Amino acid sequence: MKVLILDREHKVLLENLTFFEYEKNDIEFIKNDLNRFINDSTLTIYDNDKYIFIISSDLLSEKIKEKNISFKNICDFNNEILDFYYDKVLKGYKIEENNFDTWCFGGSDPDYLLDLVLSGKKYGTASLEKIYFYYDIELPKENQVSIITNSKGLPKAIIKSTKVEKIPFNLVDENHAKSEGEGDLSLKYWREVHWNFFSSECKKIGIEMNEEMLIVCEKFQLIKKII
Question: The whole model's pTM is what?
């Protein structure tokens, strides 16, 4: 999840709690263009007497980078900011040792997959191992706590991994297909949908999908819904 933290004078808070004041044209962007994004309900804002705390989807934060404004991952900040996050965003829920990851489901409809998690139908997910390596992302681990956001970057669910396995695509079984909660829950449906999705992911990084590619199959439990 990406956040932008401002003080009341529209200075941007950096990791070491110092502030950087942007040049005039960037301040105008914050005051004007950012309001347009907010009116489109793309951003979510929290504030207190010190900070303005803005949560963004990854897509929007990439657009805002074009204006030389940097959104940071919430985990980059110190305990003062994390406490603000727990209080305002997670509604008072605190994660032990501040050890968590944040992500949004991929595919054409990430909010649908999130809804499946919130309903209890989805307690499993799968991704290509090669994607983690290509983007230099850590593989999920058992007992890892994750915050799942919706497509706009707003946290909606906290989960905990219970099992992580690397399995060739052609050996993923019906049990895992059912855990993903999609379609008719069959392995046939899972294979068709995920073959198409993984093939498109492979194309983005210049490789070709095959039946022996390792899939990171993860099971998890829903710890908390964030309403």
Answer: 0.85
